[in-house]
Amino acid sequence: MSSPHPESSESGQLERQARAWWARLHSGQATRADADAFKQWAALSAAHAQAWRELMRVWSALDPLLAEEAKRQAQQAQQAEAARSRAKGHRFWPALSNALHSPGRRAFLGGAVAASVTAGVLAVDPPLGLWPSVGELTADFSTATGEQRQVALGEGVSVRMNTQTQINRLQGARGLALVAGEAEIATAGESELFVEAGGGRLQARGARFNIRHTGPEVCVTCLDGRVLVSVNGQQRSVEAGRQVVYDPSGLHEVVRADLANVSTWGTGVLSFDGTPLAEVIAEINRYRPGRIILRNEALGRVAVRMQLSLRSIDNALVMIRELYGVKLRSLPGGIVLLS
């Protein structure tokens, strides 16, 4: 399936390459050979150099926002690690806590972003999603923002990948690892398929299911057949039309699924009915390049009812402004502030 936001033009390709270089050079694993290779890339043409200058212009405009986002991600990383430690009965890892909160640790961007996170954290979970993560650059299969694709893996396994999704093959097993994102997976025949995501493991044979891992929670919806979900020694059998959610603390109870809502991304339409604006914005950000940032918590609780076509996702901003009286401020790099 084609992307609603293809980067097929030369400028789009150079922009993506520039972001990839940014991620590599700030991943904490860059070598002198990487630096030399980057210099050669930037000197290939005036367009290459311009793509890099434009990226720097975006970062300059976004310094305060990146600082806020980096601090927020540091807090989320601490909370997630604390939850995992409680689930395992261990104390929170002091070294991570110190790394995240040491006043002497500062993010990169030429010292502009003063945030208590390491370069490694930012490479794994980039602030504002404005450059590729390490997972995106190294995944066996991946989709860009707004892209969807179908992958046939052989042996009766097919995968339909949604936007911003990264999947790896499992070594030594007939299975996959969903690093992040969302996918609908179908397996035929008698062979068992294993899928790992967010600390959990799925087993399926002759089944079709949707799995979404876009935050600390993983949501598994069985569309046909049966899926066995295991997390931290707990197990749930999920039948067709049922759904289960799990997070680092364990498995929740199996519930009836809203199948129409689960599968709507495959139709090219996003539908919201009484959904808090904060959740609507988070969903739109999965499909739209750049980032929409909501800067009003009260506004984020407003219930939203609308339908959006993925092929004209930017119309969402106009609709939100007109329907809910939101103020918009546009910044470079596709960043939009809502207040």
From TrEMBL:
FecR protein domain: residues covered: 140-227
InterPro entries hit by this protein: FecR (IPR006860), FecR_N (IPR032623), Ferrdict_sens_TM (IPR012373)
Stated name of the protein: DUF4880 domain-containing protein
Residues of the FecR N-terminal domain: 16-57
Gene Ontology molecular-function annotations: sigma factor antagonist activity
